[in-house]
Amino acid sequence: MQTPEQIAQRLTLFTAATHYLSLGWSVIPLRSDHDPARPKAASVSWERFQTHLASEQAVKGWFGTTQYAALGIVTGLVSGLWVALLTLRSLPLAIQKAVKAAS
Q1: Domain around 52
Q2: Residue 91: helix, strand or coil by DSSP?
Q3: Which of 11, 20, 26, 52 has its CA 20 to 30 A from that of 77?
Q4: Is 83 helix (H, G, I), strand (E, B) or coil?
């Protein structure tokens, strides 16, 4: 039986996942506590989610149960989101390139 805290976490995770899906973002479950050595690793084969969104049924199955405790968002064209990793050393050059590209 789940504790009230576990139920609240599950509902929050499910709500977030369905909201992100409604924004057109590709969501997938992550290993989290199931694999402490790789908590950010995908719990499902995620290659197809680089080009297609999961179905609402899949998202409900992943996040509407206690099976998964964390979610990830697949970035890139599928979600219209990009991530840039910048170090303090590369930041000035990256800003210069971005400004130049935007003008």
Answers
A1: 4-102
A2: helix
A3: 11
A4: coil
